[in-house]
Amino acid sequence: HAPSSMLLLHGLLLCGFGSAIRGKDESASLYFGSVFDSSGAIPILQQEKWVTIWGNCTSPGATVTLRLAGVAVATTVVAQDGKWTTQIPPQLTQWNVQLHATVLGGASTITTVHFGMVILCSGQSNMQMCLSARSPGAFGSLDGAAEAARAGNYTGKIALMSIQTPFPKPVAPPWNGTTCLGFPALKDPLCRPEPMWNAVSPGSNGTVRGFSAVCWYTGRLMFEALGGRVPIGLIVGSVGGSPIEVWLPPGDVNTSEACGIDDPPCDINNNLTDSIFYNRFIEPFAPYTLGAVVWDQGERDVHCFAPATNHTARYPCLERRLIDSWRRVFNSSFAFVTVQLPGYIGDCDAVGANPAATYTNCVPGVYNMRVAQDAGTTGDDAAAVAVTYDLSCSFGVSPPDCPFGSVHNLNKVPVADRIVKQLLRLTDQVGGVSEGPRAVSASARQSAAGNWLVTVSLRGGSTPLCMNGTQNCDVCCSDPTGPSDFDVSTDGGVTFRNATLPTTIGSAIQISVQLEEKPTHVRYTANQGFPQCAVYNSEGFPLFPFYLTVHTETDKRAVGEETRV
Q1: Considering the entire predicted model, what is its pTM?
Q2: CB 34 within 8 A of CB 192
């Protein structure tokens, strides 16, 4: 059914935080949590999952009955503190359904809901970048003003909910969230200390303008991919420059498990303690049932402030802890997509590891973080990676196409497109290929000319494989004999030497490299800060970054394994 029109937000700063729950009638004895309030926008509940519903009642011990479209679907008893919570069974996609709560012989309350897809977006500055900057030169995405002007096409179809943050610091603040609690300078008489859904409103003063660009495009492209039939709810909690540790719940950072102890913290420079942003920007939404989480973070953990060193080695464990703990607190088996780091000026090896590398003035670790981000999702069938190294900015600290630093690509549409492709597969909405090939084995032989030919077998997607220049490449794929994004080690991964551009051989690629000894390891996207020429499957998705042991053809067992791949 076509969605009905929705009430527009009555004030740009109407907002909410926490689980204190009051309806419009303060004398009412029964009411839903503020996240189920339909006065700002009709709430989106997650379809096809058990959905948690909660509220308050002034009659402890009373039995609350929930009805959907007049049909009883759940009952629960009010606790002594006046809170009640229950779950309603999975529902198919629906628009404008009445959700009615009653106490036998007593009060009742009613709201209207949609059942669709609920997506929580979080991370640091690439997630926080707003759709449209409030002034020229401010932190906003490419063509964001035009996108914001068109946003009215999605009013009543997509709803927004977020926690207002102090970054970027607003002056006469525009709307960028649903609360001002905790930031006294942002307090406003219209501000409600409770999270609630807000309607999409277009233009320079609308709710979309200050919303996360990555999150907005993810929701808009998801809505379109599902044929405009499924309502989309977008929730954002993100803060620029934040390490993953501040997004984990208390008790999930410093454990005796493999993650180790967070001492010293990554961001002691800004007095950011573990769990601080989880407490402020994530926990207030719990236990709202989610369908998916999009995570765009990792830059800070590559480069922690002294005395801490980078947390790349701990990252796979921390990312798994974040996924597991958020699924626990939201009581949701949601799909999870992490956005892999692009190339930027912070990418390089330790000094001397690759003397021929084409980068300067940088910090080691970005390639390692890409591998760590991927490792954090390994073994989780409901988690995936959106690869973005080929969507990097052009080379430089703050190149013209990326004026806010080369880590901040302004074009968020292709990033969101890859996120959506992964989410559609993970949520069983659409089948097929949603990512690039992966390297599964590598072998090498020495040619008659004396150079080494390294063959890497790939799996994932269709052939033929192809090579194309990355989004803002300089040399791109123009020099087949020049350095590529592949390099090879002869000493167990201590030092590396650049290889030539690959040639494709069916579902494999082959690179050539001049070495004095036989190769031991090969890797991809580590030797250039800004990858230039990417390998793609026929579906158009790039090869995953990788690090593999190389077997030479004198190793009969390895040769046999290569043959079977």
Answers
A1: 0.88
A2: yes
